[in-house]
Design goal:
Oxidized Rhodanese, domain 1, five-stranded parallel sheet, globular
Length: about 120
């Protein structure tokens, strides 16, 4: 997977927590399959698999293109969040964050997943 995605801000697990604390309106999008989401996800995340991401489905969870939105998936070997973040940029979202380490980094750092 790439190290960066033009138009996005890449963040670490600690920075995800900082974003949650700083932005009450942050939308966290889990780009994995719904079955993976059901097994455990970051608290507050919404499930929107990359394969289901359309301008309409993204607008349903992030209606304002100035709202900060963070995408994640399983980790550095997973391309789902890359696809979703690139689409958000293409469709005019202006505050796009990419958690490259995803669930793998989240768990390595000892942060909880919820079901």
């Amino acid at each position: 997977m790439p190290d960066s995605i033009p138009g996005t801000t890449r963040v670490s697990a600690e920075e995800v927590i900082g974003l949650v604390e700083k932005h009450d309106d942050l939308v966290i999008v889990d780009a994995r399959k719904r079955s993976d989401f059901a097994k455990g996800h970051i608290d507050g995340a919404v499930s929107l698999p990359d394969t289901e991401t359309t301008p309409e489905s993204l607008a349903a969870v992030v209606p304002n293109k100035d709202t900060p939105v963070l995408f994640y998936c399983n980790g550095v070997k997973c391309g789902r969040s890359v696809t979703s973040a690139k689409l958000a940029i293409k469709w005019g979202y202006r505050k796009v964050y990419w958690f490259r380490g995803g669930v793998e980094e989240w768990m390595e750092k000892g942060y909880p997943l919820v079901k």
